[in-house]
Amino acid sequence: MNQFKEIKAEQLKGNPFRMIGKEWMLVTAKNEEKVNTMTASWGGLGVMWNKDVAFVVLRPSRYTKEFVDNGEVFTLSFYDSAYKKALGYLGSVSGRDEDKIAKSGLTLKTMENASFFEEANTVFICRKLFYQPFKENNFVDTSLIPNYYPEKDFHTLYIAEITKILVK
Fold first, then answer.
1. Among residues 105, 82, 76, 97, which one has the least CA distance to residue 9?
2. Total number of domains constituting the chain
3. What is the domain-level CATH number for residue 79?
4. Which of 29, 91, 147, 153 is the most buried (most CB within 10 A)?
5. Widest Cα–Cα separation across the chain
């Protein structure tokens, strides 16, 4: 753990639009027996309820969603471009079917009951505050539905307090 140092949200150097949308992130959560992770490129950072927060959206079919739903904390972690292949792999296979973490080549770490990977350059440890499933009748721009939800598998939105930011 000595590679990471804790910073305040105001000290974050990365651009969240690039970090999340272009470089991707891993959403990682654990239960008593297992850790699961998935690659995500949708989400955001901000302030809500006077707290620094992250928001992510997870589809009901994603195995990681079960871990996020059943736990109090999860992490968002970000990587240098050298890890893009590993992130692509982690986003394309399910932890239900194989030990994808072992096959990814990434090194699992745990801090404060939150799991993430040693290879990350930035880690947000997040505590869930709120969740809300998307509902079809709440879409103002209904053209999004056929493009992003042809199977009606609407995301669930999670808002989480960022309790710690770790950087290398």
1. 76
2. 1
3. 2.30.110.10
4. 29
5. 48
